[in-house]
Design goal:
The complex is a heterodimer of chains A (82) and B (237). Chain A has 82 residues and is of the alpha+beta class. Chain A contains two helices and three strands. Chain A has a single domain (2-78), classed as Phosphoribosylformylglycinamidine synthase subunit PurS (Mth169, Chain: A, 2-Layer Sandwich), CATH 3.30.1280.10. Chain A has helices at residues 16-27, 51-66, and strands at 2-9, 40-45, 72-78. Chain B has 237 residues and is an alpha/beta fold. Helix content of chain B is 19%, strand content 26%. Chain B has helices at residues 14-24, 67-70, 72-77, 87-94, 151-159, 218-224; strands at residues 3-7, 29-33, 44-47, 81-85, 101-103, 111-119, 135-142, 146-148, 163-168, 187-191, 197-200, 229-230, 233-234. In chain B, the strands form three sheets. Chain B has a nine-stranded mixed sheet with strand order 2-1-3-4-11-10-9-6-7, with helices on both faces. The longest helix of chain B is centred in the first third of the chain and has 11 residues, at 14-24. Chain B is globular and about 45 Å long. Classes of the chains: A alpha+beta (82), B alpha/beta (237). The A-B interface holds A 13-14, 16-17, 20, 64-66, 68, 70-71 and B 57-58, 61, 65, 93-94, 99-101, 103-106, 108, 148-150, 182.
Chain lengths: 82, 237
């Protein structure tokens, strides 16, 4: 079963990378960009067929390693089987 | 006092620490591979700078879950000392052994330069040979050294005097210009509540002989070794 974890900086925490990307976009003529925030995607493939159980385990992985609770939030999305 | 210098894949300051402890301070020291978990032979464990595990995921994230770091809570509980510099500070925060987190430098640049540090707390095991307010010179070399903590955590750090070093100007003022990475409250180094675990972004091991451009880093070691330091000079052992 595949899951997609989105890890991003908590709201209110200054994202200096996002700010730089925003300025670069403005330099390319995308003046309408109000804000950019950069996060990361972690794709996890786990054994088992219960989406609920997989989701719980992956949340545990996020709390223990994939995200830093001081600075980051995460969401877990179980992907539909192909 | 017996030192253990931890080596992760990607550590780069291990040899520098080993050299300073053995050749400058003449103290017993051994390298500790990251898979070790028996720390019974050591009094002080050093987590050196570098890019442990390539800093994959986040700086210090993987190292913070390694066997040797997993053995640290028990080591600390029985009175052991831990010094994490640069990547070592990131690892200590990632492992939850110190509060807060180290984030990308606000300037987005990797900063390799000399900095001035003001001693905020001269009572910890790592700073007892310093004077409160003393200005030290030590180099930094990092891309992710901006200390961050939420408001309540910062208040706690202040109240319990856990902030030991702040970036400052040469005259000791903690100004915005003297803050090389946008660190919260100019924080360069903190200790745990007991004062037995130090995390700092600067490199004391790179300021340990006059040929390196300064010896202020030795004060950290001499504090640990219980030596007296007065006016920038130290008693040779």
């Amino acid at each position: 079963m595949k899951a997609r974890v989105l890890v991003r900086l908590k709201e209110g925490i200054l994202d200096v990378q996002g700010g730089t990307v925003k300025r670069a976009l403005a330099g390319l003529g995308f003046a309408e960009v109000r804000d950019v925030r950069v996060g990361k995607v972690v794709e996890v493939d786990v054994e088992g067929d219960s989406a609920e159980a997989a989701s719980a385990r992956i949340r545990e992985m996020c709390a223990k390693l994939l995200a830093n609770p001081v600075t980051e939030d995460f969401t877990v999305e179980i992907l539909p089987p192909r | 006092m017996k030192f253990g210098v931890v080596v992760f894949p990607g550590t780069w300051s291990d040899c520098d620490f080993h050299y300073v402890i053995s050749e400058v301070l003449h103290q017993p020291v051994k390298y500790l591979w990251h898979r070790e978990s028996d720390l019974s032979d050591f009094d002080c464990v050093i987590l050196p700078g570098g890019f442990s595990y390539g800093d994959y995921l986040r700086a210090g994230a993987i190292a913070g879950r390694s066997p040797v770091v997993g053995a640290l809570p028990e080591f600390i509980a029985r009175g052991g000392h831990v010094l994490g510099s640069c990547n070592g500070f990131q690892i200590l925060c990632e492992a939850g052994l110190l509060p807060g987190a180290l984030m990308r430098n606000e300037c987005l640049q990797y900063r390799c330069q000399s900095t001035f540090l003001r001693v905020e707390n001269a009572e910890s095991s790592f700073t007892r040979a310093m004077r409160p307010g003393q200005v030290l010179k030590m180099p930094i070399s990092h891309g992710e050294g901006k200390f961050f903590a939420d408001h309540a955590t910062l208040q706690g750090l202040r109240e319990r005097k856990q902030i030991v070093f702040r970036y400052c100007a040469e005259d000791g003022r903690a100004t915005k210009e003297s803050n090389p990475n946008g660190s919260l409250d100019n924080i360069a180094g903190i200790v745990n509540e007991a004062g037995t675990v130090l995390g700092l972004m600067p490199h004391p091991e790179r300021a340990a002989e006059s040929a390196m451009g300064g010896t202020d880093g030795l004060l950290v070691f001499h504090s640990l070794l219980g030596s007296l330091v007065e006016d920038g000079t130290f008693l040779k052992r």
